[in-house]
Write a structure and sequence with these properties.
Layout (H helix, E strand, L loop, with lengths): L1 H29 L1 H23 L16 H43 L11 H19 L1
């Protein structure tokens, strides 16, 4: 099961690279915010259809959840606007490696302290070395 999840997140990462490649030209044609809106509009419509067919009918109310859990709704559009603006200038590879470096850095902090309701997973030397390799990749691609 863990291997399947790893394959799925790798595929998801590949999808983000494709999305970044699509957003740059779209933003250049219709504007960065319209491009972001279109991505979220299509995503919201698709998610709504999936919810109609696959969401459990007796799940807890969305509105009963703590407000801080909705922060992802604010962070998502910021992330997509950054993709839309950065990708045409620095390229898909630099954008994705930069995003990855930020994700891994913040993820290590979240895991280490068990923030946002996640289980605590201590940061060890191996995890820090992995982060350093990602930063090294960012430097190498930037100089390439």
């Amino acid at each position: 099961m863990q291997l399947l999840l790893i394959v799925l997140v790798i595929a998801g990462g590949m999808g983000l690279s494709v999305e970044a490649g699509l957003l740059g030209p779209l933003g250049g044609e219709v504007g960065d915010l319209w491009a972001t809106f279109s991505i979220f509009g299509v995503g919201a419509a698709l998610t709504f259809l999936l919810m109609l067919f696959f969401s459990p009918r007796n799940s807890p109310s969305f509105f009963a959840q703590p407000g801080w859990q909705l922060l992802g709704g604010v962070l998502g559009p910021i992330y997509v606007v950054i993709l839309t603006v950065a990708t045409p200038t620095i390229g898909v590879a630099m954008t994705m490696i930069g995003i990855l470096a930020g994700q891994v850095f913040k993820s290590l902090i979240i895991d280490h302290f068990g923030l946002l309701g996640t289980p605590q997973r201590k940061t060890d030397g191996k995890r820090l070395i992995a982060l350093l390799f990602i930063v090294a990749a960012l430097v190498l691609v930037a100089r390439g």
